[in-house]
Every structure is written in structure tokens, then in C-alpha cells.
Amino acid sequence: MRHVYECPVRWADQDPLGHVNNVVYVDYLQEARVDMLRTHGRSRQAEELAEGVVVVRTEVGYRAPLFFDFRPVLIECWVTEVRAATFTLAYEVFHQREDGTRKVYLQASTVLTPYVFAEERPRRLTAEERESLAAYLEPTEVAPRATFSERPASAGQYPVQVRFSDVDVYRHVNNVTYFEYFQEARIHYFAQVWREPARTARQPVLVIARKEVEYRVPVLHREEPYDAWSWISRVGTTSFDVQAELRDGDTVLARAHTTAVVVDPEAQRPTPPAPAFRDALLAQLG
């Protein structure tokens, strides 16, 4: 069994290219997940999974740009794995065509764990929760995870200031907001890397093709900023990978792996970056 959620698209969800921003999709997934667990929980205890969980890992593959539409976008979600203390949900974001086929914009998965917020610790799934999740279970082969490299000396540093509105009712920064932090750090890093090439050539237009975020330690609201570090880990013909860490001193709070693609804004197709920009990326590889 799969759950389908009708998600409204807001005008403010768009980026400068007129696409729904890559961060906003993760918010859509959260809405679909909460709706699924609230709608089909078989007991009060099972319904607590709707809000009584934390996200351990999120993997997102962006398939096509989604533009603003007064129609809601559909999000199908189901369970792919249930373990002792975690479960994994898969998602597909799409519009249904008149002939019954789908226009797919995004495919994703999240690994979640039940959490005792009063004690700040994860817990095991109960028998009732496992039974409730089993109704949606469609086992799927796990995709290989990205390999993280060591942070190089050339990495860019960005201070992340947590806003009060970033924090949920449990006083943790919401999982969606991490994507925003890494996006801000990445844009700041690109501005530094491409400062010189931008003096003589037009800056490339980028779209995000894939992103993985691994959550390790909850981020809390405080006056002092956290540190986000970003660096280039691979350079291809039309795409490149950026890795990042969110840190509190020596403690890694979260890690991200992002694949960005250079596109021709008129043709809406991948294209190689100008040589000066490619050289700047390669220089970051050392």
C-alpha cells in the first residue's frame, strides 16, 4: 500500500529560474510523511510516529524542474525497510497526465528513528509501530551512499546563525532547515571560488541533481554561530560534487553531498562551464 498526499505549491517556493527551489522539495516530503503517519496510524502510539521521530538521513534525486501551478503536486510515499530502531520511507513527487502516465520531478528517501525528546535519545520501534509500518512495506534494494572525503585546506567556511524560527517544538533545528544551511554555505563558497572568473565571463547557471544529508547530532538554537565547511570533491564534464560539514568546533553535526549540474538556461540542458570556471573548480581539488 502507498499513501498519496496532495501538496499545494506556493508562489514563494520558486527560485530565480522559476523552478521550485531544491530545499522546498524537502519540506514537501516532510508534509507528506506527517500526513501519511497521521492518517493511517492504527493506534495512539503508532500515530506518535508522525511527530515523535528524527531524520537520520535524507537522499534526494531531482528528475525534472517543477514550475508553479495552481494544481497541487502529488507525493506518493511508502516504507522500504523496517529495522529495530529505524525505518525508511521512499517518495515520488509527480503530476498525473491525462493518459495516466506521470511527470516525475523528484525521487527521495528518508531514514527515521523514533526519539524520546524528553531524554534526548533514540528508541526502538514498538511492536504496534512495526505492524503499522508493515502495511506500507515494499522492500527495495538500498542505493550506495556517497563516500565523504577529508576536508581540505581549500574548503570554504561559512558561519551559520540559527534563527528562532528554524527550531521546532522540540527545540531542535528542523531537518528541512539543514538543507537551507548547506545551500547558503554552498552559494557563499561558489562566490569565493568564482570571484576571478566572473570578472571576464558570465557565471554558470546551476541546478541541483542530487543531494544527500546525514544528520548526526541535533542542532540547537544559540547566540553563537555554527561553522559550515564546503569543498569540491569531483569535477566532471557538465557536473561537479560539493561536500560539506556542519560543525560545532570538532564535533560534526551533519554532512552533505551535493551534485550540481551546469545548464544552458535557454535550452534547459546540461552544458560544460566556461574554461575559466572549470579551471577554478579543478584548482579546489588541489
For the structure shown, list the relevant keywords.
globular, Thiol Ester Dehydrase, Chain A, 286 residues, twelve-stranded antiparallel beta sheet, 2 domains, alpha+beta, 21% helix
Describe the structure.
Strands 1, 2, 3, 4, 5, 6, 7, 8, 9, 10, 11 and 12 form a twelve-stranded antiparallel beta sheet that branches. This protein has helices at 22-40, 44-47, 127-134, 175-193, 275-284, and strands at 3-7, 53-62, 73-82, 87-96, 102-116, 121-122, 156-160, 205-215, 226-235, 239-248, 251-264, 269-270. It has five helices and twelve strands. The longest helix is centred in the first third of the chain and has 19 residues, at 22-40. It is globular. Helix content is 21%, strand content 36%. Strand 5 (102-116) and strand 6 (121-122) form a beta hairpin. The mean pLDDT is 92. It folds into two domains: 1-143, Roll (Thiol Ester Dehydrase, Chain A), CATH 3.10.129.10; 144-286, Thiol Ester Dehydrase, Chain A. By secondary structure, the chain is α+β, with helices and mostly antiparallel strands.
